[in-house]
Structures are given as structure tokens and as C-alpha cells.
Design goal:
membrane, disordered C terminus, alpha/beta, transmembrane helix, Integral membrane protein, transmembrane
């Protein structure tokens, strides 16, 4: 009679293996429910708590004409007013993304400049100002019997023809954040060795950046800037997110994957400013969001497509900082080769079992 295998589980005849205790099962259900609530709040909270405030707005024209405009606009509490000497200076400020729009006073009336590509919400608020100015001018003209001054609208930075409302630009930020997260998770779980992981992340960033730029640019025409520059931005964003997750995995092991995903998707993405102007978010969260990968990359893509005169230094520095942090954690982390060690242990165990006794 053959002796029972030492690897067989010791189990009494007629019994079934015990399942997870009920209290542990209930704890998992509660934790899962809390996770769903956190996910909902992460994406809903910014828009729910936002309000139109502190939007940078230029008021240009002769001091006598702009004084009354500045007083009236400041009283609304929606704008952060900056004065400019003339219309040309106001346009430069908008093109460099130092303001969302401008109100220019001149001899023939008032011209309101908007930049829908900077933010449709901000443009809508500034359009509302133009409508109020036109209504006030009509009332004054009716009361005095004089001709009402003209109030005209001019769009300085519109969206592309294929996406006139900018809805696709706002949505593009989520797949970019998720793409970096997915790449980091797959490399962490499927690739062994920190050098090979670095190579896999770099290759993924190059291929993914070229592919995503082709879809959002030449194919769907969501982005209208240089294809190669947009591919570089997307590749840098994918590399920054993926290397950060892989680096966390190398630093603290498996929990690093979850931490990296939370930072990217549930913190960085809602604060990115892709859907809402950063000024509308409560406290300083809008500014803080620009120091995360989704915020930096989203702003870079918007600037490349619609505001080529604006500075892009901040965005590139943020992406570089996240990439370097991820690589440092990967290179020097104590768990950088855990997956390779696990594979070696598994192969050794299988070979031992196959050897004859």
C-alpha cells in the first residue's frame, strides 16, 4: 500500500473545507461598500462643491471707462480683475492663459473676449457678463433717450471644428490616467527584474503615446496641435504614472499597486482641472491638482492644442518629477525583484515535486 502523500491536505472523511468566517465576509462587504462611496465622492465632489469664483479676467481701456466696469465686475465675486492698457495686451494675456477672458472698453462700446478652449464654464460666465452689460446699456439708453453703446462678443480661442463644445477634451483625461495605471499594474505583475520593468514601462510609454495621439489627433481631431508633441506629452504621462506604480511596488510590495492607483485615479484625476477650472475647486485643491500627473498632462495637451503661446515649463517639470520618483523607488526599493524571486521559488518547487522519490 502506498503511503499517503505528504502534500495532500489533512482532511477528515465526510467533511468539507471550512469557508471564510461570516464576520470576515461581512467585513469585506462593508469595505467594498465604503470603496464604492469613496469612488463616487472622488468624481462627484469637485463638481458638487465648485462655484464660480476668482476667475482671472482682464479689464482694458481708458481708466475713466474701466473704473466703473471694474467696480461692477468685482461686486459679483466671480472674477479676479486685472487691468490692461489696451485690447492687444488683453488678447496676449488670454493666449498665454493668464486670464479666461477680457472686457475691453472703447469709444464704440464694450467688447467681451472669451476663450472657450480654456474652459467652457468660464466662457459661459463671461458671456453672462456680456448679456448683463448689454441689458444695462439698453436700460440707460431708454432712460436718457441716447443711443445704446454696443456690446460685442469675440472668441479668441475656440475649440476645434470636430469638438466645438470641448466635451471630448475633458473626457480624454480619464483614459490617459487609466492607461498609465493599467500599464503600471501589468508591468508590476507580469515583468520580473527592475531593469526589465524599466524597459517595459519605457516601451509602453512610447507605443501608447504614439497610439493615443493618433486616435485623439489625426483620427478623431479632438486635439489640434502637433502630433509629435502631443504624442510626447501622452507618452510622458503614461511613463510618469506607470513608473510611479511600478516604483511603489518595488518599494513596498503588492500594496504599492493599490496606493499608486488611488493616487492617480481617485486623487489626481478629479483634481486635474480637465472638466472644471482649477479656480472653481474649493480651498487650494485646484492648484494642488496641477502637481499630479493627470493635471499636468491635461494642461499640457490643452496648451499645445489651443494656447501655443503659453508656457509649458510647469507641466513638463511635474511629469519629470513623478517619473524620477518612480524610477528611484524601483531602482533602490527592497521589493524591486520580488516577482522574479517568486517565479524562481515556484519553478524550484515544481521541479522538486516532479523528481522521483
Amino acid at each position: 500500500m502506498n503511503a499517503p502523500s505528504s502534500t495532500a491536505p489533512a482532511r477528515a472523511l465526510g467533511t468539507t473545507p471550512a469557508g471564510t468566517p461570516w464576520h470576515a465576509s461581512l467585513r469585506v462587504a462593508v469595505l467594498a461598500s465604503l470603496a464604492v462611496i469613496i469612488v463616487l465622492l472622488a468624481f462627484l465632489w469637485p463638481s458638487y462643491t465648485s462655484k464660480v469664483k476668482d476667475l482671472p479676467l482682464i479689464v482694458a481701456g481708458p481708466p475713466a471707462a474701466t473704473a466703473q466696469l471694474t467696480t461692477g465686475l468685482s461686486a459679483t465675486g466671480m472674477f479676479d480683475i486685472t487691468s490692461a492698457t489696451d485690447r492687444e495686451a488683453a488678447v496676449v494675456a488670454i493666449e498665454e492663459r493668464n486670464a479666461y477672458g477680457a472686457v475691453v472698453a472703447g469709444p464704440g462700446g464694450v467688447e467681451v473676449l472669451t476663450a472657450t478652449a480654456a474652459s467652457p464654464i468660464a466662457a459661459q460666465a463671461i458671456t453672462g457678463v456680456a448679456q448683463k452689460l448689454a441689458a444695462q446699456a439698453a436700460q440707460q439708453a431708454q432712460a436718457t433717450g441716447a443711443e445704446a453703446p454696443k456690446v460685442t462678443m469675440t472668441e479668441v480661442a475656440p475649440f476645434g471644428e470636430k469638438d466645438p463644445r470641448g466635451s471630448n477634451v475633458a473626457v480624454a483625461g480619464l483614459p490617459l490616467a487609466m492607461g498609465g495605471m493599467v500599464g503600471g499594474v501589468l508591468v508590476s505583475l507580469l515583468v520580473s527584474g527592475h531593469r526589465r520593468r524599466f524597459g517595459a514601462v519605457a516601451a509602453y510609454a512610447v507605443i501608447g503615446g504614439l497610439a493615443l495621439a493618433a486616435v485623439l489627433g489625426p483620427w478623431l481631431h479632438v486635439l489640434t496641435g502637433s502630433y509629435l508633441v502631443e504624442a510626447a506629452i501622452m507618452g510622458a504621462a503614461l511613463f510618469a504614472t506607470a513608473s510611479f506604480i511600478v516604483g511603489l511596488h518595488g518599494l513596498i510590495g503588492q500594496p504599492g499597486i493599490a496606493v499608486g492607483a488611488i493616487v492617480t485615479l481617485f486623487l489626481g484625476n478629479p483634481l486635474s482641472g480637465m472638466s472644471l477650472p482649477k479656480e472653481l475647486l474649493p480651498w487650494h485643491w485646484g492648484e494642488i491638482g496641477q502637481f499630479f500627473v493627470p493635471g499636468a498632462s491635461g494642461t499640457l495637451l490643452r496648451l499645445e492644442s489651443y494656447f501655443p503661446q503659453a508656457s509649458t515649463t510647469h507641466g513638463w517639470l511635474v511629469l519629470a518629477a513623478w517619473s524620477l520618483a518612480g524610477l528611484a523607488m524601483l531602482w533602490f526599493g527592497p521589493h524591486r525583484d520580488d516577482h522574479a524571486a517568486a517565479d524562481t521559488t515556484t519553478e524550484t518547487a515544481v521541479e522538486t515535486e516532479l523528481l522521483p522519490a
